[in-house]
Amino acid sequence: MRVIDSHTGGEPTRVILDGFPDLGAGPLADRAARLAGPHRDAYRAVVLEPRGQVAMVGALLVPPTDPGCVTGVIFFDVAAVLGMCGHGTIGVAVTLVRLGRIGIGRHRIETPAGIVTVEVHDPATVTVTNIESRRSAAGVAVDVPGLGRLTGDVAYGGNWFYLVEDSPLPVEPANIPRLTEAAIATRSALAQAGITGDDGAAIDHVIFYGPAGEGASHGELTAPERSQAGRRHAELRQAHLRQAGPGETGSAEAGASRGRAPQAGTAHGGSAQPGSRAAAWAVSGPAPSPSAPGSAGQPGMDQSGAGRSGPDQPGAGQPGDGQSIPPRMGLSGEVPSSRNFVLCPDDAYDRSPCGTGCSARLACLAADGRLAEGVEIVQHSIIGSTYRLSWHRGGAGGVIPSITGRAYVMAEATLIFDPADPFRTGIAL
Ligand code: PYC
Q1: What topology is assigned to 2-131 in CATH?
Q2: What is the per-residue pLDDT across 32-52, written as a single tens digit (0 to 9) for each?
Q3: C-alpha to C-alpha distance for 65 and 28, rounded to whole angstroms
Q4: What is the reported pTM?
């Protein structure tokens, strides 16, 4: 099996060029189901140790059904076949550039979740325009043994995510083992409580957010930018807590009314509940429109789509002034730059900021009226790599995310599966 390994912001991708069993024809979702079934051992052998490594995502290139696509691709980790993968798509794009199959410019790639576009800016830098992403439920409370009650949003960005704005632990590299345990416990508690994505889809990714303060990034931000982002996050966090009231400051009853049914205000039809985070941020205007995330007139949005005022500009609301949410809260957008910790289905944490997780996050920010259409923000990963993110309105009430990141090719190899090797299918304990 011929493969090319790359990493995107530290997260590895192994692209399989040839040598994998044929999955047949038909829609990519059907081929992905065949990969998950009869070919499970074969795909796991590619990413499991000793051939693979922890956190590795495989990307099997397959013929697309749409002739306008440069390739089809099915992503997987050791635990699951994925609907989409943002860092993996960036890895696939730089791999195709290295192979001379694509050049600078825009190209379409087919995935089981739909067709995505990659814009190759240079041999390492790629913008992915993802499939339409959406929040399905806001302010969903879940009791997690050892952690207490957490509240988060359920959203889809090509995979299903539970996104917790107020991380139960500081989102810092030193806490990675504890964050991993906490996220696994959260994912189990969600499953036990019957909290799912649409149509009962399992939520197999969990994200905790914290400030991207001093020392958070080894990416594109300068030290002064990082300190500014950290200070801003702290200020805004305080403002958020003041405005939220007891419903958001640790009261066990606060989440109870929203309960375990993920229905309490959705990107499509629900409205913010009093005391919910959406309500807390949306102090100066109506709840986000179900059909128009980030539509003009929402808090944090200007009326025209241009000329937003911000804290630097006259007349802008200030954090905690009780009047309005400052339209430009962050370094480069309307929310502070944050650092995330993302748990993947294989129980490994994403070294990158997670493209599909960022897409889910954009859907939540848009639905809450916290980030205007087209405005760019920076998302830091737990190891300090960064993506630049923005969104545009989708056709079905969600958002079309753009994710810009960098990937680097690390190896070109031929994988050998020796029948005499007792661990040829990998170490799976
Ligand atoms: O970047 O979307 C992503 C991703 C999903 C799982 C690991 N990375």
Answers
A1: Diaminopimelate Epimerase; Chain A, domain 1 (3.10.310)
A2: 999 999 999 999 999 999 999
A3: 8
A4: 0.76
